[in-house]
Amino acid sequence: MARINLDHIRHAYSAKAKAAGDYALKEVHHEWEDGGAYALLGPSGCGKTTLLNIISGLLQPSDGRIEFDGVDVTRLSTQQRNIAQVFQFPVVYDTMSVFDNLAFPLRNRRVPEAEVTARVNEILAMIDLADMARQKAQGLTADQKQKISLGRGLVRADVNAILFDEPLTVIDPHMKWVLRSQLKRLHRHSGFTMVYVTHDQTEALTFADKVVVMYDGEIVQIGTPAELFERPSHTFVGYFIGSPGMNLMPVRIDGTSAVVGDQTIALSGPPKVAGAVKTELGIRPEFIRLGREGMPVSISKVEDIGRQKIVRAVFCGEPLAIVVPEDSEIPAEARVTFDTDAMGIYADSWRVGMGG
Ligand SMILES: Nc1ncnc2c1ncn2[C@@H]1O[C@H](COP(=O)(O)OP(=O)(O)OP(=O)(O)O)[C@@H](O)[C@H]1O
């Protein structure tokens, strides 16, 4: 397993790139821990695959270096980097049995046959294909074939990292849930460094210890699921993580207060917004109290989502989502209070400290 150091990496698909906007991947400078489970999460086109391909060696970055355990691998091929990869669509040898497909990477490296059998049987049980071990891969469903691909990615114990590129796209929803939990368990047992690309927040949040949120070619936050929820570093993280996402409203900062329309909201300190063109207040729907006290809102809609309700309201002309327990009473003349510790101030989309 390896610690992955991304040292001032940037990538542009055009050789003529000059401005920051020309780069599909803007500067990335991070060290990922040995044995960590990382998910690269973000919308289509944000640069996830570009970054993954730079780690695997399929792509050479325009600038910067990549190191595995302190060794520069920037110019090395995927094979030389000793990495296992699982792609979005299955890659299997149709004429081989399920067992032989899984054994292939081990036999290729002349692993003793007794060890091959033990390891393949372990993986077969994990992906729930033990009954089909002797069957040819030809004729299996796309779902089953993708499970073989996943298994092949996991079968070697000596890889530096395992990279997954949206591996559950073709898997049916129930199996998705099962495989996700199994991958998580396997990560805990094996200590593999894993990097998992997805645009699905549930997939990222259940799989990863650290979620790397990408937006427009940039890493906007690396954090645990709780950190992303409680302290989004960027308005995009607030919007993308959570359902509904974080409320954002334009505000004017006056000392230790945020002013929205005719309302003045006390903050925990003076936010550092000097020089910002746009200042916004962010608060998650879960941290707003709805009742008879506080600032007035007008309610436009209530959506019942099982154990909770989402109240859609308008606050000082701005849309506001509030999450309340299923049984809570919604007063006719509703008012709201914002939890002081849960509010964030964003200057030109980035969260700022409240220290003056
Ligand atoms: N081979 C290429 N040549 C030119 N531009 C490319 C190439 N591959 C990707 N891009 C561009 O680089 C940007 C980042 O693409 P990338 O595939 O890394 O995003 P992604 O987050 O993985 O998206 P998706 O989830 O759709 O795969 C996009 O604007 C894309 O159009």
From TrEMBL:
<dbReference type="InterPro" id="IPR012340">
    <property type="entry name" value="NA-bd_OB-fold"/>
</dbReference>
<keyword id="KW-0547">Nucleotide-binding</keyword>
<protein>
    <submittedName>
        <fullName>ABC transporter ATP-binding protein</fullName>
    </submittedName>
</protein>
<dbReference type="InterPro" id="IPR015853">
    <property type="entry name" value="ABC_transpr_FbpC"/>
</dbReference>
<dbReference type="InterPro" id="IPR040582">
    <property type="entry name" value="OB_MalK-like"/>
</dbReference>
<dbReference type="GO" id="GO:0016887">
    <property type="term" value="F:ATP hydrolysis activity"/>
</dbReference>
<comment type="similarity">
    <text>Belongs to the ABC transporter superfamily.</text>
</comment>
<dbReference type="GO" id="GO:0005524">
    <property type="term" value="F:ATP binding"/>
</dbReference>
<feature type="domain" description="ABC transporter">
    <location>
        <begin position="4"/>
        <end position="241"/>
    </location>
</feature>
<keyword id="KW-0813">Transport</keyword>
<dbReference type="InterPro" id="IPR027417">
    <property type="entry name" value="P-loop_NTPase"/>
</dbReference>
<dbReference type="Pfam" id="PF00005">
    <property type="entry name" value="ABC_tran"/>
</dbReference>
<keyword id="KW-0472">Membrane</keyword>
<dbReference type="GO" id="GO:0015408">
    <property type="term" value="F:ABC-type ferric iron transporter activity"/>
</dbReference>
<dbReference type="InterPro" id="IPR008995">
    <property type="entry name" value="Mo/tungstate-bd_C_term_dom"/>
</dbReference>
<dbReference type="InterPro" id="IPR003593">
    <property type="entry name" value="AAA+_ATPase"/>
</dbReference>
<keyword id="KW-1003">Cell membrane</keyword>
<dbReference type="InterPro" id="IPR003439">
    <property type="entry name" value="ABC_transporter-like_ATP-bd"/>
</dbReference>
<dbReference type="Pfam" id="PF17912">
    <property type="entry name" value="OB_MalK"/>
</dbReference>
<keyword id="KW-0067">ATP-binding</keyword>
<dbReference type="InterPro" id="IPR047641">
    <property type="entry name" value="ABC_transpr_MalK/UgpC-like"/>
</dbReference>
<dbReference type="GO" id="GO:0055052">
    <property type="term" value="C:ATP-binding cassette (ABC) transporter complex, substrate-binding subunit-containing"/>
</dbReference>
